[in-house]
Amino acid sequence: MKKFLFAIVCIAIFLFPAKFIFAESQTVRIGLESQKDMVIKNKKIYIGIKDKFIDCPIETKTNFKINVIDSFDLKLGKIFSSYKDILQSKKELAKNNLKTMIYVANVDLFFLCTERTKTSILNQDDEIINANGKKMFCVDNGEDVILFDCDKFKIKTENDDLIEFGNRKYCGNLEFNYDADAKKIVAVNNLDFDRYLSCVLGTEMPFNWHKEALKSQAIVLRTYLTKKIKNKPHKNYDLCDCGHCQIYKGFDKNFGDLEKIIKETNDLYIYYGDDLIDAVFFSSSGGATENSENVWVNKVDYLRSKKNDLTLTEENKTWSHEFLSSQIKKMLAQKNIDIGNIIECKILENAPSGRVNKLLLIGSQGEKILAKEEIRSFFKLGNGQILESRMFDLETQNFLDENNELDCAIKIFGKGYGHGVGMSQFGAKFLAESGFKFDEIIKYYYSGVQIKSRRQKPAAFFFAIKIYDTYKNFF
Ligand SMILES: [Zn+2]
Fold first, then answer.
1. Is residue 402 part of a domain?
2. Which end of the chain has fewer beta carbons closer than 10 Å to its terminal beta carbon, N or C?
3. How many angstroms does the Cα of residue 192 sit away from the middle of ligand 1?
4. How many A from CA of 362 to the centre of ligand 1?
């Protein structure tokens, strides 16, 4: 009997596919919308079509430039099956002043070609391919031009070194898509999801902050981004690298330690009931976080206002701004609103946290009420920045202008940075430094949530463990 039970337990535990027990590595596709110049600064790259790469690298003494050409007729010449051979042949023809290009039909099928208008000495029966209306990618290393007629091609480096693209460095590989609507190339970075998380964590929180704060931010980001990817915000990739999805600036050598943080929180997500939460977060609260309905529309049970301890200096840090009545008039005009000269500005309603929910602008010819986050986006601070937060007070100051006429300025004094819903990053730092563990920080900011792994262990696995637990004395 003992042997029989022991055998069942062993079979049940050890024969389950490893993926149920260990996390699978996932890949994420990030559209690098913020990258405008398609310049790769590595000196050696490998180029591939779909998932196959040309077996020898393409080199440059300067940079690689990637662009897209259209309406291009090519005169195809000799066929080659290796990149090395075609390069050799190309160099020999160059000695006779014949400038050719390399057309990659596949990773083992290359043609030497010229533009249709050029006289060819490649072959008597040159074939002409008409690429009219079709887009072709073109990789230029300063000496050779390499053409691809496929929509997608990939670039990777030797030994999976970082790719130096534009002014940033990226792990994994780069893929290039032509966005016909926007008429531009968008590079897509394919990389391991955990690698991506460590890069994003390093952008969101200084890498030398308290480990428990970093761990809570890691789990918040994993949950937030997984939920975002599920909603499919983009057609051609999972997420973009801008504020629309999540700011992503590639890899930095300081992010190395953050990979350990990601591993230590491996596969942990935040759930409310059976669903992943919308794990929103922001920089600093200025004293209290906010109920979701006071910022957006819906009341979310786990996004409730929490009062922070104000001993934290960053949470207390104040800021102030002054807006002249003429500036406010201009801001209203941009929204096609004219209420005459601004006379006064009044707070009509505060949320229980203290944030301004409704603001009244009084003009000589009318009034305008601003509500919720519209208040922040109305008061522009330059550089595309909006008002730091709605945790503010204000006063209207009257003065006589140079024409001796009564004018006014609105002075706003505030605290905090961000929308105020969910986890405060500076608050998490403060709690971590006060001895809170990552799970306590998360449960503090998101009411009634659980932190658990998404790996699904089959019922039989638990059954086997249970049998082992019950009968372990027999073994
Ligand atoms: Zn996006």
1. yes
2. N
3. 18
4. 37
